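Each record in this resource describes a single protein on a pair of labelled lines. With that in mind, the following record should read easily:

===
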Amino acid sequence: MAEDLREKNKQAAEKQKVVSAKNEKKEEVKSEIYSANADDLRKKLSNKNAEYIFKLNKYLMDDGFKEDEAKAEIDKLLPEIIENQIKGIPANQLYGPVTQRAQSITHPVKKPKKTPFWASWLDTSLLFFSLFGLLYGVVALTGNGSKNDPNSQTGIITLIVLSAMWGALLSWFNNQMKKPKSERPGWGITIGYLVVGMVFMFVFLAAMSVIPTTINPPLNAIGYFIAAIVAFGGRFLFRSMTGYKERSFF
């Protein structure tokens, strides 16, 4: 029994050596293909792949490519074509019909740039700041906040931090909703994060109520309106300079 086990282990080890040798050979061949001269690769094309390349070159030139431009585009494909040719996969199976591949070269589809979180956060925060500024300006103007009690007004620091918090929370939520369904967190987790964020904001507001007005001064109605206009103008300028066009609300 022990001898049978040793024999099986020996066979497994030999089999593994064979597999490793094959993999090394494949990598060596692949390295040679991708480092080879394009003209040399053209000589290795099968008749079927050579015909594909000929038609592709014709389509590119008919679409306005110069001869050297068409050649440069095709040269980029040759290593991949040869690699798959060895595996028995022709170019029309690899890339689809010639017209389809030519279309993808002449009119490439640009992948949408992923918006960095900071850009979404800044844009949304500025929007919230202008909305809050307008709201508190109206409250101060209508006298719903006691003019004799400055602590009843929202301080400028509170307004800035609160807007930043709302911007971060909503930007995170929007990013989750833009993901494919398979990558989105469950609704339970999403709502849980939103609830935690809301609780944190209320705790922050409660904590800021004990901060003296000398540190966190409130504004009068005109001050809030001016702050709202400045924030909205800053948002417009940010969008104009960066080309940011995404909506702040999902």
